[in-house]
Amino acid sequence: DGGITQSPKYLFRKEGQNVTLSCEQNLNHDAMYWYRQDPGQGLRLIYYSQIVNDFQKGDIAEGYSVSREKKESFPLTVTSAQKNPTAFYLCASSQTPGTGGGWYGYTFGSGTRLTVV
Amino acid sequence: GQQLNQSPQSMFIQEGEDVSMNCTSSSIFNTWLWYKQDPGEGPVLLIALYKAGELTSNGRLTAQFGITRKDSFLNISASIPSDVGIYFCAGQLRAGANSKLTFGKGITLSVRP
Fold first, then answer.
1. How far apart are CA A64 and CA B9, in angstroms?
2. Which of A84, B6, B68, B74 can bridge B104 by disulfide, Cβ–Cβ 3.0-4.6 Å?
3. Three-state SS for B81?
4. At CB < 8 A and 24+ separation, what contacts does A65-69 make?
5. Do B95 and A103 count as a contact with CB atoms less than 8 A apart?
6. Which of A84, A88, A74, A92 lies closest to A20 in space, CA to CA?
7. Which residues lie below 8 Å from residue A1, measured CB to CB, with a gap of 6+?
8. CA–CA gap between residue B85 and residue B75 (Å, rounded)
9. How does strand B44-49 pair with strand B101-103?
10. C-alpha span between B60 and A2 (Å, rounded)
11. Using one digit for the tens of pLDDT, what is the confidence trace for A15-58?
12. Would you call B78 exposed, middle or buried from its count of C-beta atoms within 10 A (0-12, 13-18, 19+)?
């Protein structure tokens, strides 16, 4: 079955350490996205990539980095510069929408909950 | 940037009741989507709307694309305990390679048995 997989589901990090969250999709989607979710704050865009070897900053990119070396993979690194990294992180992917309708938006992974200890 | 407004932040209903949620914007969107997020999981698409005035159903769910293209509504009929979760609206401004979704902040629905 096609889908998008995030791993691990739960991650604990010590302060001052970098940590990388994995996101893999086999949907043949061109675009991939990383969101951060905090209670009551909705989904905030961290980074997105619409093609291999290219990515753009979202609204809250500071303290995060990404790479897009393969179409299927879009890992997110939470660096020690991120002051408040404890959150639920969601990865998503999508086809490039056409003009004729029928676009189904984003497919989301099941999330990674990162806790700084 | 674009913003979608969803309120209230939380809703509490009794099992069996109907509930309606709306989503408004100051900008026009070409596509409206409604997602549901179960606790600890990622959002899942419920309904997609592509034309102004379009009314679409998915089981007990009904959603409408507002005539002005600046709003959308989601109705859940005869609620059940598994309807608990966060409901997000999302809008797409334009098609093409640079299109991204804009999300509302979500409404957390609680259903009392």
1. 28
2. B6
3. helix
4. A66/A34, A68/A32
5. yes
6. A74
7. none
8. 14
9. unpaired
10. 27
11. 989 999 999 999 999 999 999 999 888 999 999 999 999 999 99
12. exposed
How far apart, in whole angstroms, are the C-alpha atoms of residue B9 and residue B109?
9
Q: pLDDT value at position A25?
A: 97
CA B52, CA B55: separation in Å to the nearest integer? 9
CA–chain centroid gap for A92, Å, is 6
- Name the amino acid, one letter, at A67: S
How many CB atoms neighbour CB B103 within 10 A?
24
Question: If DSSP codes are grouped into helix, strand and coil, which group holds residue A3?
Answer: coil
Give me Rg for the CA atoms of chain A. Answer: 14
Q: Which residues in chain B have their CB less than 8 angstroms from residue A104's CB?
A: 33, 45, 48
Subunit contact B42:A90, Cβ cutoff 8 A: yes
What's the rounded Cα separation, in Å, for the pair A94 and B48?
14
- C-beta atoms of A97 and B92 within 8 A: yes
Q: Which of B45, B100, B105 is the best substitution to test chain A (most A C-beta atoms within 10 A)?
A: B100
- Rounded to the nearest 5 degrees, what angle is found at the Cα of B99, between the Cα atoms of A95 and A30? 25
User: CB distance from A101 to chain B under 8 Å?
Assistant: yes
- Which residue in B has a C-alpha nearest to residue A109's C-alpha? B42
Answer yes or no: do B101 and A105 touch at CB < 8 A: yes
C-alpha span between A95 and A103 (Å, rounded):
8
Per-residue model confidence as pLDDT tens digits over B7-19: 899 999 999 999 9
